[in-house]
Write a structure and sequence with these properties.
The protein is of the alpha/beta class. It is built from 17 helices and 14 strands. The chain has helices at about 15-20, 30-40, 70-80, 85-95, 100-110, 125-140, 150-165, 180-190, 210-220, 245-255, 280-290, 325-340, 345-355, 365-390, 415-420, 425-440, 470-485; strands spanning about 55, 145-150, 170-175, 190-195, 225-230, 260-265, 300-305, 315-320, 395, 405, 410, 440, 445, 460. The chain is globular and about 65 Å long.
C-alpha cells in the first residue's frame, strides 16, 4: 500500500509547541499514581500501601473535602427546576432552607436555564454580583462590564496570554517556582517565558531587584517583555505577599509598561497576615499620586476551585480588567466568544462564592460552620505536615502561610543523585518516584515548577485527611536517606 495509508499524525508531525509544553502536576508521577489506584480498586494485594494519596494537585473534593451544603442545594435546583414546584417537600422533608429556594429562583431568572448558552463573557447579573463582591472586598468601585466569567481561572489565563503575546518575541515575566500553567501556555503560544526567582530565604517573597535583572537580560536578548505574572498567595510556595511587595511590583509595571496578571485564586487560603489584592493596592496608589498609575493594566483572576469552595470540577472563575483599552477589551470579548461561554452551572457557582449567605439568612449558620471547619482543617493539616518535615533529615520548609501547598527543600546524598542519573531522572524526580512506589503518596518534584540551580524541592498539598500518610512520608524519607548515604 502507498504511504497515503499511514497515519497523518505522529510525534514529529503534530504541533511541536504542544509537544514541548510540560505540565508536571499531571505528568508521569500522576499517571503512575492512577495506575496504582486502578490496581487497588481491582483488588491488588502486592503493593506496599492500601491507598493512593494524590497530593500532587489542589483537588480538594477528591481528597474528601465536603461540598458546602448551600452551594450544592442551590445547584441541585438549578439543574432540576421542577423541584421548586414542591417547596414544602424541599423545606420540610429534605432540609432546604427558604433562602436556598430564593437564590435558585433568582439565578434561574438571571440565566434562564443552565442548559442554555449565556453571553460569551458571562451572564450580566452574575458579573454584577462579582463587581459588588469586589467593591466590598477592596473598598473601591468595580464595573460589571470589566468582569469576564471563565471556565476556571486557567481559562482566563489562556485568554489573557493569547491577547498579550503578539508573536514569538513576546515575553512574560513568570515567578520561579511557578504553577506550570504559565510556562506550558507560553510554550504552546511559542512565546517567551522570562523567569524571575522568588526569595526562599524571605518566605518566598517577591524581590523587584530580581525581577529587574530578569527583565533587563530578556530585553538585551531581544525579547519584547509585555507582562508580569504574580501568584498571590503563591503556588507552589504558599507565600502571601505584603502590601510593600505589591506596591513595588506595580511601580515596576508602571515604569516598564507591563500588564500585571494577578493570579489570586488562593485569596481565602491565608494563614498568616491578610490577603491584599492588587486591585486595592493599585487604587490606593492612584489616590495617592493622581494620574501617575492611570495607564497600568491589571488583570486579576479568581476561581471556585480553591479556597473553602473547592469545586474544581464545576469549572467556574472570573477575571477583572482594570485600565485596559476598550478596543482591546472588544478583542478579548471576541476571543472568549470563540468558545461560546463558560459553563453556566459554573457561572452560577461563582455567584454563590462571591455572594454567600449573610448573617441573618436562614442558611448562614450552617454555611459559616462548614466554611470555618474546612479552613481549620486545612490549617491544622498544614501545621502537622510542616512539623513532620521539621523532623526529616535534610529537609527545610518555611511555616505555612497560605494556599494549599508546602514546598520544602530537600538535600539528598550524592549516591541518590547517581541513582537518579542512571534512570535518566533529576534527583527530585527520582525521590518523588520512590516515594510514590513505597507509600502511594504522589507529590510533584520541584523541577516541575522551576527552582534555582543546585536546589531540590517537592510540592505537596495538605488536603488529604488523617495523619497516617504523613507518617508514611517520614518513614520513607528515613529509609531513603539510610539507603543512599
Amino acid at each position: 500500500m502507498g504511504s497515503e495509508a499511514g497515519r497523518r499524525l505522529n510525534l514529529d508531525t503534530i504541533n511541536q509547541h504542544v509537544r514541548a509544553a510540560k505540565y508536571a502536576v499531571r505528568g508521569e508521577l500522576a499517571v503512575k499514581s492512577e495506575e496504582y489506584r486502578l490496581a487497588l480498586a481491582k483488588g491488588a494485594t502486592d503493593l506496599p500501601f492500601k491507598q493512593v494519596i494524590s497530593a500532587n494537585i489542589g483537588n480538594p473534593q477528591q481528597l474528601d473535602q465536603k461540598p458546602i451544603t448551600f452551594f450544592r442545594q442551590v445547584l441541585s435546583l438549578l439543574e432540576n427546576p421542577q423541584l421548586l414546584d414542591k417547596p414544602d417537600v424541599l423545606v420540610n422533608e429534605l432540609g432546604y432552607k427558604p433562602d436556598v429556594l430564593e437564590r435558585a429562583r433568582k439565578l434561574l431568572k438571571a440565566v434562564g436555564s443552565v442548559g442554555a448558552y449565556s453571553a460569551s463573557n458571562g451572564a450580566p447579573a452574575i458579573r454584577q454580583s462579582v463587581a459588588e463582591f469586589l467593591e466590598r472586598r477592596d473598598g473601591f468601585p468595580a464595573r460589571w462590564e470589566d468582569i469576564y466569567l471563565s471556565a476556571g481561572a486557567s481559562s482566563g489565563v489562556n485568554t489573557l496570554l493569547h491577547i498579550i503575546c503578539k508573536d514569538s518575541s513576546s515575553g512574560v515575566l513568570v515567578p520561579i517556582p511557578q504553577y506550570p500553567l504559565y510556562t506550558a501556555s507560553l510554550s504552546v503560544l511559542d512565546a517567551q517565558c522570562v523567569p524571575y526567582y522568588l526569595e526562599e530565604h524571605k518566605n518566598w517573597g517577591t524581590d523587584v531587584s530580581a525581577i529587574r535583572s530578569s527583565y533587563d537580560k530578556a530585553v538585551a536578548d531581544g525579547i519584547d517583555v509585555r507582562a508580569i505574572v504574580i501568584i498571590n498567595p503563591g503556588n507552589p510556595t504558599g507565600a502571601s505577599l505584603p502590601e510593600s511587595d505589591i506596591r513595588a511590583v506595580l511601580d515596576f509595571a508602571r515604569e516598564k509598561r507591563l500588564v500585571v496578571i494577578a493570579d489570586e485564586v488562593y485569596q481565602t487560603n491565608v494563614f498568616v497576615g491578610e490577603f491584599i489584592s492588587f486591585k486595592r493596592t493599585l487604587r490606593r496608589l492612584q489616590q495617592e499620586q493622581p494620574g501617575a498609575y492611570d495607564a497600568v493594566e491589571l488583570a486579576s483572576l479568581h476561581s471556585v476551585s480553591k479556597g473553602m469552595v473547592g469545586e474544581c470540577g464545576h469549572r467556574g472563575g472570573y477575571f477583572e480588567l482594570v485600565g485596559f483599552d476598550p478596543a482591546v477589551q472588544n478583542e478579548i470579548y471576541k476571543f472568549v466568544s470563540i468558545m461560546l461561554c463558560a459553563p453556566v452551572i459554573g457561572q452560577c457557582l461563582v455567584d454563590l462564592m462571591v455572594n454567600p449567605p449573610r448573617p441573618g439568612d436562614p442558611s448562614y449558620d450552617q454555611y459559616r460552620a462548614e466554611y470555618d471547619a474546612i479552613y481549620r482543617g486545612l490549617h491544622e493539616r498544614a501545621t502537622a505536615l510542616h512539623k513532620a518535615f521539621e523532623q526529616m533529615e535534610g529537609v527545610e520548609c518555611g511555616a505555612p502561610q497560605g494556599s494549599m501547598y508546602l514546598f520544602p527543600t530537600i538535600r539528598l546524598p550524592p549516591k541518590a543523585a547517581e541513582a537518579a542519573a542512571a534512570e535518566g531522572r533529576t534527583p527530585d524526580e527520582f525521590y518523588c518516584m520512590r516515594l510514590l512506589e513505597a507509600t502511594g503518596v504522589c507529590v510533584v518534584p520541584g523541577s516541575g515548577f522551576g527552582q534555582k540551580e543546585g536546589t531540590l524541592h517537592f510540592r505537596t498539598t495538605f488536603l488529604a485527611p488523617g495523619t497516617e500518610w504523613v507518617g508514611s512520608i517520614v518513614k520513607f524519607h528515613r529509609e531513603f536517606m539510610d539507603k543512599y548515604r
